Amino acid sequence: MPKNKNYREALTSPIFHTISKAADDLELDTYVIGGFVRDLLLDRGNHKDIDVVAVGSGILLAKKVSKLLLHTPKVQVFKNYGTAMLRDGDLEIEFVGARKESYSYDSRNPVVEDGTLEDDQNRRDFTINTLALSLNGKDFGNILDPFNGLKDLNSQIIRTPLDPDITYSDDPLRMLRAIRFATQLNFTIEPKSLKAITRNKDRIQIISRERITDELNKILLTEKPSVGFALLHKTGLLPLILPQLTALEGIEEVEGQRHKDNFWHTLEVVDNIAPHTDDLWLRWAALLHDIGKAPTKKFHKKIGWTFHGHEFMGAKMVYQLFKNLRLPLNEKMKYVQKLVLMSSRPIVIADEKVTDSAVRRLVFDAGDDIEDLMTLCEADITTKNPNRFKKYHNNFKKVRKKIKEVEEKDHIRNFQPPVSGEEIMETFDLKPSKEIGIIKDAIKEAILEGEIPNEYSAAKEFMIKKGISLGLVPGNQ
Q: Which residues belong to any copy of the HD domain (predicted)?
């Protein structure tokens, strides 16, 4: 992080000089503020979203900037919020007039009035997001840091500019944002602030599910999501947001027999999968792969703890969970359901002798998601016993090798039986009937069991034999 208090050289994009000229022409004190400045000082890549605050009309400033740009981008105006937005290449710049806010207890939508830059910094969530760089010509690049945000950046601390109880009660979404920033940046939430989140946790219920889910998704996409979920758990927010997950916590012991804590195991699985995929939905599958274990947990004197059918139960639970969180109820949800449902299949195969038949069925059922399923199952190995860990991974290597062999030989993935229903009808002079389905299923089973190869001539010969066994008479072949 630069040591001086002027960051002129860091503001390399030409857009800042255009904004500077527009601000000086309008005689508006103008600043770039928030996430762009924070990430600039942390050297965290290029920020494409830029927040600009003017002491005066942000809308007027946006229109002036648009006129100065050669391509004269369209300005989107949001009069109710006193904001405007324009695009310059891949940059999205939001202009707002400096404002102060006051809140009512039952809403996170504030009453807004014009204010000073200090008012605007006061209303922001964390000190590291209050940092502002001047864009006016006279002091271009100078930093304004009334809350020691630079110090907190250096100390890697998440702290609110005002009393945290007020900050979190006013806008409870900030509690999730604190946890998300702590996870993304590997920062620590200062103790006073963390306690305030716990005190105000119930306020999260006034926040829309869409906004909550947006923060959850961002936590899930971090390098180590368990940090965020552990903080959500510690503050008491998690049971209010994802009770299906916290229901997995705890270890019961009956007659000396215990089971593992499936909550903390789940967080390990999510961390394990994170280095191997940035796919949000595969990470959701990792987070939810064991949610069916809480409602299916039973103790049997002879065999101990069981979770029979937890994959089926978990897959059923995914729909309601997605619905509650306003996650998409489309192919994304079906993908997560499928991986939850199949999450134990490769493990069972790896535990036993890897047969061609079992692998064919696995590949057929998983289809194009077979690689993701294998990645999930490998992440699911959290044993601390080095010998068992090595054994499982070696077995999964065998399964992967067998998948490749079966794929090359039998082309099972997403296959359709080589003989169509229409051809069965023509061969036996049939109208639509249950016999057609019986024959098609028999062909599929024969291919999956390795009785016949996945090719037309063998499938047709099998079809005729099967039809004859059902009392059907083939026509002239």
A: 265-380
In a 3-state reduction of DSSP, which class is residue 114? strand
User: Which residues share a beta bridge with 257?
Assistant: 254
Q: How far apart are CA 203 and CA 207, in angstroms?
A: 8
- State how far the Cα of 424 lies from the Cα of 82, in Å rounded to an integer: 68
- Strand pairing category for 188-189 and 76-78: unpaired
Query: What is the DSSP track for 388-432?
Result: HHHHHHHHHHHHHHHHHHHHHHH--TT---SS-HHHHHHHHT--S
Res 132 pLDDT > 70: yes
Q: Tell me the per-residue pLDDT of 275-327, one tens digit each, with 9 for 90 and over.
A: 999 999 999 999 999 999 998 988 777 777 677 889 999 999 999 999 999 99
Give the pLDDT of residue 3: 45
| Structural domain harbouring 142 | 8-150
What is the edge-to-edge ordering of all strands in the sheet holding 132-134? Answer: 76-78, 83-88, 91-97, 49-54, 30-33, 132-134, 143-144
Angle at the Cα of 171 from the Cα atoms of 216 and 203, rounded to 5 degrees? 75
Instruction: Please tell me which of 73-82, 231-240, 356-365 the model is most confident about, judged by mean pLDDT.
Output: 231-240
Q: Read off the pTM.
A: 0.85
Question: What span, in angstroms and rounded, lies between the C-alpha atoms of 327 and 319?
Answer: 9
Residues 146, 42 share a domain:
yes
Q: Are residues 102 and 202 in the same domain?
A: no
Yes or no: say if 122 and 100 are a contact pair by the CB < 8 Å rule: yes
Residue 219 pLDDT greater than 60, yes or no? yes
Same domain? 168 vs 208: yes
What span, in angstroms and rounded, lies between the C-alpha atoms of 136 and 28?
8
Q: How far is residue 93 CA from its own chain's centroid?
A: 26
CA distances from 38 to 1, 12, 55, 237, 282 (A): 11, 16, 21, 26, 30
Distance of alpha carbon 295 from its chain centroid, rounded? 24
397 DSSP β-pair partners: none
Instruction: Please count the structural domains in the chain.
Output: 3
